[in-house]
Amino acid sequence: MEKFFQFQERGTSYKQETIAGLTTFLSMSYILIVNPIILSQAGMDKGAVFTATALSAIIGSLLIGLLANYPIGIAPSMGLNSFFTFSVCIGMGIPWQTALTGVFISGILFVILSLLKIREKIINVIPKDLKHAIGAGIGFFIAFIGLKNAGLIVGNEGTFVSIGNLKSAGTMLAIFCFILTVILIVRGVKGAIFLGMAISAIIGMFAGIIDKPEKIIGAIPSLEPTFGEVFLHLDQIFTPSMIAVIFTFLFVAFFDTAGALIAIASQAGLMKNNEIPNAGKALIADSSATVIGAILGTSTTASMIESTAGIAAGGRTGFTSVIISGCFIIALFFSPLLSVVTAEVTAPALIIVGALMAMEVKNIEWGKVEIAIPVFATILMMPLTFSVATGIAFGFVLYPITMLALGKAKAIHPIMYGLCIAFIGYFIYLS
Q1: CA distance linking residue 73 with residue 342, whole number of Å
Q2: Helices (DSSP H) in 334-413: which residue ranges?
C-alpha cells in the first residue's frame, strides 16, 4: 500500500494521510446537506439527491485517488448546482430531468476530451505566472466564502459588503475556532485544522449554538426518484437552448476543475516543470464522476477546492482520497451527525487555507507589468464574481493581449490564443 501510493517519495504516512482525509471530508461534507436543498428547488427529490451526492463523491474520490494518486475529494460543484437549479430549471423553465440529461452529455464530452488528452494539454500550456495566479485567486475566493459563512462579512446595499454582527453566537464560535486553529498551526500541531473543527463543534453543541443530533444512525434514502432519468430524455436535448446549456456546463466545469487541480497540485508540491503529473488520469476521474453522478441523480461534479484543507493538514497521496471516499460511505448511514458540521465550524478552515494558498503570489513576476495586470485580474475577479472560471477568463483574455503589445507573440502557445477568443465569446454569451 505504501509503495502503491508512494508514501516515502512524498514524505507522508498512514496517520498523516488519514488526518488529511478526515479534514477534507469535514470541510466538504456540507455538500451532503446543501446540494439536496439546492436541487430540490428544481423539483428533485431531496432524499434521492442526498444519496446520489454521497455516491458520486465516493466513486469520484476513489477514482482520483487510485488512478492519479492525488489527495483530492470530488463531489457535486456548488457553482454548477446553482446554475442547474436557478438558471436552467427555474430561469429557462427546463424540467430537471432534461437538465440532468444535459449534465450527462456534458460529462461524456468531458470524458472524451480527457481521453484525447486535450484537457491535459490545455492545463500544461498555461503560463506559470497564470498558474500561480489561479492558485492564489482560489485562495482569496475560498477565504471570502469562509468569511461569508462565518458571518464576518455580510451583504450591504450601500457598500456591497460590510462587517457582520460580531456578537452573534455563530460568528463568535467561528472567531474562536479561527484563533484556536491559527495557534495550533503556528505551534506546528499535526492535523491542526481537523482538531480546530472538531473542538469547535463540541463546544458549539455544549454552548447550545449547534443543535445536538436527534439520532446517530439514519436510513439511506432511495435513489428511485432520480436514478436513470437521463436515459429517458435524450430526445429532448437537441434544441438551441439545451445545446447552450450543455456548452455552459462543459465550459464552466472545465475551467473550474482545471483551476482547482492547478491550485491543489501546486500546494501539494506535485507540479513539476510547470506540468502536473498524471493530470490526464485526474481529469478522467472527475469527468467520469460527472457521468456517474448524472445517472444517479445529481448535477456536475468537480475537484473540490476544499481539498486544500486536507493538503494543509498533510495530505500528499491518493490515500487521502480513499479516506475521503470511506468517510462518505459512513456518512450514508450517519447522516444525522452531519448536522453538527455547520458553516461556522468549517468557515475558519476555509479562511486559513485561503491564506496558505494566497502565498502563491510570491512566485509571480510582479516586476513585469505585462504579467502583473493579467494575474491581478485573475486573482481579483475570482472572489468579486464568485466564480473561478470567470477569474480565469479575465486572465486568459488579458495575458495574450499584453504579450502581443510587447511584440512577444511567439512566447504564447497557440492554444492560449484560441482560449482567449473562446473566453471573449464566453463573455459575449454571458452578457
Answers
A1: 19
A2: 343-358, 369-385, 388-405
Q: Which sign does the torsion angle of CA 288, 289, 291, 292 carry?
A: positive
Q: Using alpha carbons, select from 261, 259, 263 the residue that is nearest to residue 357.
A: 263
Question: Which residues have C-beta within 8 Å of that of residue 275, sequence separation ≥ 6?
Answer: 124
**C-alpha to C-alpha distance for 36 and 298, rounded to whole angstroms:** 9
Q: 278's torsion region: left (phi>0), alpha (psi -120 to 50) or beta?
A: left
Give residue-wise pLDDT tens across range 320-340: 999 999 999 998 987 777 677
Do 51 and 262 form a contact (C-beta atoms < 8 A)? no
Q: Which amino acid is it at 422?
A: A
pLDDT in tens, 137-149: 878 887 888 898 8
If one counts every other C-beta atom within 10 angstroms of the C-beta of residue 115, the result is 13
Grid-cell match 484556536, residue found: 180
Secondary structure class of 217 (helix, strand, coil): coil
Neighbour-count burial of 159, counting CB atoms closer than 10 A to its CB (0-12 exposed, 13-18 middle, 19+ buried): exposed
Angle at 47 (CA atoms; ends 45, 51), nearest 5 degrees: 115
